[in-house]
């Protein structure tokens, strides 16, 4: 294959030879463009005195099934807090829809989801029970970056969810397009141009692209750009 899509942190792992079924570092993989941010969101019950990640000790957590990127990152976050999965009363590995129902039924106190904004499951939770969106402090962020250089800072704007009266500091990694580093520069330049030229059409078919710009598509990441894409985004002032 000469073109593909994935999550940046998964690509970073593959380039480092890390991941299920990976026996050696991947080569010949270059970044073409970001697509949209995948945002870490931690929704806690607002009526249980949970104000920070450290308050999760002894609480019940919901996250996606084992091995999913969301679940792996949840385990990293809990380890970085010093609580770990062992310090929780229970970890429920379930779909976002099932987590929303568990949250509403009182079976879990917090849900960790990586998705775009706003996430339907958290909207469902927040419309049924008080929700507090938790920050990821700098010390936890630094530990995540040590695990994987694909993470970067992100702000969930206040008002994204019902009852959210302040900005929330969290992390994200982009979904992105990758290409073979061997593709000709002019071909990849044209691909980057076509992608950004098509942004109005992308917005019309998927709201996740609303508010995106050429600077978002071309924002610097922790892996190397294909030279053709790099040339295009530098010309556009994104790099």
What's the short story on this structure?
The chain has 239 residues and is α+β, with helices and mostly antiparallel strands. The chain is built from nine helices and eight strands.
Task: Give your account of this protein's structure.
The protein is of the alpha+beta class and 239 residues long. The chain has 2 domains: 3-35 and 176-235, D-Maltodextrin-Binding Protein, domain 2; 38-173, Periplasmic binding protein-like II (D-Maltodextrin-Binding Protein, domain 2), CATH 3.40.190.10. Helix content is 34%, strand content 24%. The protein is built from 9 helices and 8 strands. The protein has helices at 8-15, 69-81, 96-105, 120-126, 138-147, 185-197, 199-205, 214-217, 227-235, and strands at 3-7, 29-45, 60-63, 90-93, 110-115, 131-133, 152-156, 168-180. Strands 1, 2, 3, 4, 5, 6, 7 and 8 form an 8-stranded mixed beta sheet that branches. Helix 3 runs parallel beside helix 4 (120-126) and helix 6 (185-197) crosses helix 9 (227-235). The protein is globular and about 55 Å long.
List the helices and strands and how they pair.
Elements: E1 3-7, H1 8-15, E2 29-45, E3 60-63, H2 69-81, E4 90-93, H3 96-105, E5 110-115, H4 120-126, E6 131-133, H5 138-147, E7 152-156, E8 168-180, H6 185-197, H7 199-205, H8 214-217, H9 227-235
Parallel strand pairs: 3-4, 3-5
Antiparallel strand pairs: 1-8, 2-5, 2-6, 2-8, 7-8
């Amino acid at each position: 294959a000469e073109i593909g899509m994935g999550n940046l942190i998964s690509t970073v792992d593959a380039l480092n030879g890390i991941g299920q079924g990976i026996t050696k570092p991947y080569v010949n993989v270059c970044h073409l463009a970001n697509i949209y941010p995948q945002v870490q969101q931690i929704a806690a019950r607002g009526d249980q005195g949970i104000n920070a990640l450290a308050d999760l000790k002894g609480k019940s957590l919901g996250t996606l099934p084992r091995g999913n990127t969301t679940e792996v990152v949840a385990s990293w976050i809990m380890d970085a807090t010093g609580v770990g999965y062992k310090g929780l009363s229970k970890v429920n590995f379930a779909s976002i829809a099932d987590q929303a129902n568990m949250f509403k039924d009182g079976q879990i106190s917090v849900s960790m989801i990586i998705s775009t904004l706003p996430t339907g499951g958290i909207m469902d939770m927040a419309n049924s029970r008080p929700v507090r969106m938790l920050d990821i402090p700098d010390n936890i962020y630094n530990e995540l970056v040590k695990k994987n250089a694909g993470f970067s800072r992100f702000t969930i704007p206040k008002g994204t969810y019902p009852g959210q009266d302040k900005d929330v500091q969290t992390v994200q990694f982009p979904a992105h397009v990758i290409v073979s580093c061997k593709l000709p520069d002019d071909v990849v330049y044209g691909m980057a141009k076509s992608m950004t030229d098509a942004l109005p059409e992308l917005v019309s078919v998927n709201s996740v692209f609303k508010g995106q710009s050429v600077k978002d598509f071309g924002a610097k990441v922790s892996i190397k750009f294909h030279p053709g894409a790099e040339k295009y985004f530098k010309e556009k002032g994104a790099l």
